[in-house]
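Holo prediction. Input below; ligand is iron/sulfur cluster.
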Amino acid sequence: MNAPSSMTPEAKAFRCTGCGACCSEFWINVSDADVRRICADTGLGVMEVVEFASPATVEGDVEEEGWVPFGPDPADSGLMTLKTDPETSTCRFLQDSLCTIYESRPMACRLYPWDRDYPTYDSSRIGLEILTEECPYENDGDEGVDALDELFDQDDREGDAYEARIETWRRLGAPDDPVLFLRFLRFPLNGSVKATEDDAITSDAGRGIPTAAS
Ligand code: SF4
Ligand code: SF4
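Structure of the complex:
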């Protein structure tokens, strides 16, 4: 558990207006824990949920977290992301500007546009990190720092666990087959996926655009 955070005033007053711009401008990278939650919640198979983006497509740095080696050439690395709709190039779960997997949306979605930094050794701070110019947020929100802290802690735990699995995959020789990687992560290619107790979201904080049914 990290030191309790403070929040910048802008971050505390942030309110998402639900425009959906951040669901249509980025590749949403996911961990295996994110994918288990989505598959368990929707009944979809892993092949219907994720795809792998190449460094050339997303102009990514393969040295950063989340990149999976597929063979010896770093250019063949892949970033596990939510599938995009080929017609609209938006997240496949965005419909009529609403999130259809609100309850199981990934950590990247819950935590956008916040970021936690460490201005001193024993203090942390949550601030806004707006990555899209089209984020028409309002300043009348009331975000709870404790709830967001919990989410950041869980995101750290799940990110570290996923990185450790990627490292094992690398040590095993990093075959150039993303489907094999999904099997290595223990996802059945045909069949349902169960979330584990550890996958449970411990906080209902975080941004999102629920559908009316959520
Ligand atoms: S909030 Fe929902 S619709 Fe938007 S990118 Fe995330 S999963 Fe997709
Ligand atoms: S975070 Fe910003 S860009 Fe994303 S849906 Fe909310 S207002 Fe729109």
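The CA atoms of residues 168 and 174 lie 9 Å apart. That is the main takeaway for now.
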